[in-house]
Design brief:
The structure is a homodimer. The longest helix of chain A is centred in the N-terminal third of the chain and has 20 residues, at 15-34. In chain A, the strands form four sheets. In chain A, strands 1-5-6-12-11-10-7-9-8 form a nine-stranded mixed β-sheet. A five-stranded mixed β-sheet of chain A has the order 15-14-16-17-18, with helices on both faces. Residues 72-85 of chain A have low confidence and may be disordered. By secondary structure, the first copy, chain A, is an alpha+beta fold. The first copy, chain A, has helices spanning 15-34, 48-51, 96-106, 152-168, 183-193, 198-205, 208-224, 228-238, 246-257, 264-283, 345-354, 378-390, 404-414, 453-456, and strands at residues 38-39, 45-47, 62-66, 89-91, 114-123, 135-144, 176-182, 241-242, 288-291, 304-310, 320-330, 335-344, 358-360, 368-370, 395-397, 418-421, 432-435, 441-443, 460-462. Chain A is built from 14 helices and 19 strands. The first copy, chain A, is elongated and about 95 Å long. The interface between A and B is large, with 98 and 98 residues. Strand 3 of chain A pairs antiparallel with strand 3 of chain B, so a sheet runs across the interface.
Chain lengths: 465, 465
Amino acid sequence: MPKIAPLSGFPEWLPAGRLVEQAVLDILRRTFELHGFVGIQTRAVEPLTQLLRKGDTSKEVYVLSRLQEQGEAPADAGAPSRRSSDKQLGLHFDLTVPLARYVLENAGQLPFPFKRYQIQQVWRGERPQDGRFREFTQADIDVIGDGSLPFHFEVEAPLVMAAAFEELRGLGVPPVRISVNNRKVAEGFYRGLGLDDVEGVLRNLDKLDKIGAEQVAAALVTECGATDEQAAACLALAAINGDDLTVIDRVRHLAAANHIPGAGLLEEGLAELATLLQEAVRRAPGVIVADLKIARGLDYYTGTVYETTLLGHESLGSICSGGRYDALATDGRRTFPGVGLSIGVSRLVSRLLSAELVRPTREVPTCVLVAVTSEETRGASTEVAAALRARGIPTDVAPQAAKFGKQIQFAARRGIPFVWFPGDDGPASPDQVKDIRSGVQVEADPASWTPGAEDLLPTVAPAVP
Amino acid sequence: MPKIAPLSGFPEWLPAGRLVEQAVLDILRRTFELHGFVGIQTRAVEPLTQLLRKGDTSKEVYVLSRLQEQGEAPADAGAPSRRSSDKQLGLHFDLTVPLARYVLENAGQLPFPFKRYQIQQVWRGERPQDGRFREFTQADIDVIGDGSLPFHFEVEAPLVMAAAFEELRGLGVPPVRISVNNRKVAEGFYRGLGLDDVEGVLRNLDKLDKIGAEQVAAALVTECGATDEQAAACLALAAINGDDLTVIDRVRHLAAANHIPGAGLLEEGLAELATLLQEAVRRAPGVIVADLKIARGLDYYTGTVYETTLLGHESLGSICSGGRYDALATDGRRTFPGVGLSIGVSRLVSRLLSAELVRPTREVPTCVLVAVTSEETRGASTEVAAALRARGIPTDVAPQAAKFGKQIQFAARRGIPFVWFPGDDGPASPDQVKDIRSGVQVEADPASWTPGAEDLLPTVAPAVP
C-alpha cells in the first residue's frame, strides 16, 4: 500500500465538514429555485480550444490524456493529430465557459431569458494557498438573454445572492458586503479624461489594494500614458464608495471638476448604478454598496460588476463575484448577453470550518439508534427501524448486540440523540426510548413516536463562542 | 467561435432532464440518510499509483497534466521525475478506490462501522456506447468495519438499495430485481469439485450470458483444467436461481451428487445466502433473488455479491452492483473489510429519458410568474415576488412589460402554472392570480395565497403511455 497523504489544493472534509457544506449547498439551491433559476450540470471537460480562449486562467488548465495514449508523442500545436488541441480535452476552470458552450449547443431548446444555477467542481492548476484550491466547488447563477437582456437583471442577480447569504446567516455564516461598480462609469470617466487604454487603467486599478495608490498612479503614468492629473483623477474616482445616492453625486462632481462632459457612457453607467443602489437599499438594506474601485480582472464585463466580502474575513478575498457581459457567447448570427455571479463554496466552507464559525448538531443523519438485545432478536430491532424510517425518521440499528451501555456510548459518540430499546412482545414489556442527552426514558410505539422537529435531522448552527 | 458539438460519452441533460436526475438523486440521498448513512465527497483525482492497483479498469484512467508542463518530455516509467506515476494524478474511475484511501487517511477520526454514501462523477476512457459513458454519476453506499464487519451488513446493504428503488418507482422507474450470490458458495463448490483456479472459473462463468453454456464449458476444460464432468457441475450450479430456500437445498443436492463434503466454505456460504434470502423475503418480497451464476468480474469480493436488473430493460446491464470484500484497505496494521453497492445513476437516468418513462410536471422550479404592467411599476411586481418567496413559493417576475397575453404565453411555455397580476394600490383593484391551465382567475393576497401542494414544486411522475 503506497503512502497515503492529503493532496495539497484538493480539499476534502470529514463527515461533519461535509454536513456543513451540504447545508450551505441546500440553502443555495433552495434560494436559487425560489427565484426561478433552473439547475443544470455540464460535463467536467471542454475541448482545449474552448478553454484557451479566456486569457490568464487558461494557463491553469488541467489537460486530460488516456493512459493508453501516454506512450504517444505529443503533437505539435498546429499539426493535424489525435492530440491536437481540437480533440484534446481539459477540465473546466469555471462554470462560465461551459455555460456559454451549453447555451450555444442547446439554444434551440432553451427558454430565454434562461435563468440557470449550476453547482459543480472546477479545477485550476494554480499554486495552492489559503482559500485557493486546485479543485473547488462553485455555485453560479446567470441570466442569459437571446440578443438582448434588460438592465433589471443586473439588479436582480446580486439581490438573489444577498438573499442566499441572508439565509446562510442562520448557519453561522458572517454577514457579507456586496460591492458593485459599473464598467460604463469607469470607461466613460477614463475616456472623458482622455485615457483610451481603458483595459490598462482597469488592470492597474485592480492592484490598488495590493500595491497602494502611489504605485498605481506611477503605473498609470508609465504604462497607460496618463498625466499626473489624470492618474490622480482615476484614483479619486476609485476612492468613492457608499450605499446611497450621494455616491452618484460625488462622481458627477469629480467628473465636472475634470471637465468630463455630463452625458454619454458615464451618465448611462451612473443612471444604472443609481437604479441598482435605490433597489438595493429598499430590498437588502446595508448589503450592497457602490465601490468605484472594483475593477474585476476579466475584460469581458460591460456593465455592473460585483465582488463580495465576508465581513471580518476580508483577507479571504471575494467569495462571490461576477458581472454583466454583453456577449457571453455568439454563433455569428445570434449573440447571448448575460449577467451572473459565482460563489466560491469551497473557499467559504473552508473558512467556516477552519475558523470554527459553525457547528453541526451531530455528525450522522441518524436520529434514533435501535439497540439490539441479542443477535437472535436483531430482526425485532430492524422492524422498529423500518417503522421509524417509514415515518421519515433517520434510524440506525446497533452494529452489535453489545451491553446496552456500550450501545448508548456508540450513539453518544456520533451525537445520535435517541436510543430505542425494543421490548419483548406483549404489554408486559413495551418498547422504550431514551433521550441520551437528558437521560429521560419513556415508553414508545414505533408507529407513533415522533422526535422534536429540531432533532429529526442534523442541523448546522452558529458555533457558540 | 469553434464548432460546438456534443462529446460522445459525456452526457448532459436539458433542464427537464436534469430535473429528473435531481429527483432521482434526492430520493437516493433521502433513503441513504434515513438508513443512517453519512454523505462524503472525495476529490476527483487520485495518485496514478493508487488507480493502477485495480486490474482491468485501470486501463481506462484519464491522466491529468498541467498545460504548462505539456512541453516537458514524458518521463520513463521508472525514472524519478516530476511526472513519474507517484506524482501523476488521474481521475477516479469509481468511488471505491477513493473510499479506501479516504478511510486509511482518516481512520483515526471516523466512527466504525463507517456507513457512508457518496454521489459523484467518475470517469472512464472506454469506448462510449448505449448506457456506457466516459463521465457518469455513481451513487454508492458502503459499510466499512475496522478489523471485522458482521455478516448482517451484507443483508442490510441490498435492502437499503431495494428501499431506494421502491421509492424511485413513484417517479416512474420500473421495478428491479436484485440478484445475489455468495463467493463462498462458488469457491467452496469449485474447490470441493477439485478445481483450484477459482478466479479462472469465475472469470469464465461471468461470460455465460454473452457466449453461452457450451463455450463456457469448453473454456473451463481448456483454461481451468476441468474435466467435462467438473465443467458440467459448474454450469449446473450456475443454473440454480430462485427467491426461496429451495435454492439452498438444490445446491446441497448438487454438491452431494458431486461428492462435495457438506461442511466448510460451501456450507458457510449457503448459511449466509439462506439468511439473506429469509430476511429479503420478509422485508422486500419479490425484489431479491438468489442467482448462482452471478460472478462479478472483480477479484476482491469475498462474500455476497449483487447485481441489479431494471425489469423490462435487461439489455441495459446491471444498474446497481457490488459485494462484500474482506480487505477494502489495509495499512499493514489495520484491515478494513466492507460491503457496498453502487448505482449507475447516469445509466439509469439516460434510459428514463430516452425511453420516456418519466415526465416532469414543468421545466422550471417556478410556481408563479408575476406579471409586470409597465416597467415603471416593476417594483410592485418584485414586491409580490418577494412576499411569495418569503413563504417558500418559487416565483419569477416577467422579464418584460409585454402585453399580458405574451406574459401568459411566457409562463405556459415553461409549464409555470400560475400568473399573478398585481392590482393598483387600494381596494378598488386587488391583486389577482390566474391558474393558466384551467383559466380560473381569483383575487389573491401575496401574504396569504397558497398554491396546491402538488403545484408548489415541479415533480417527476410516470409518463402516461
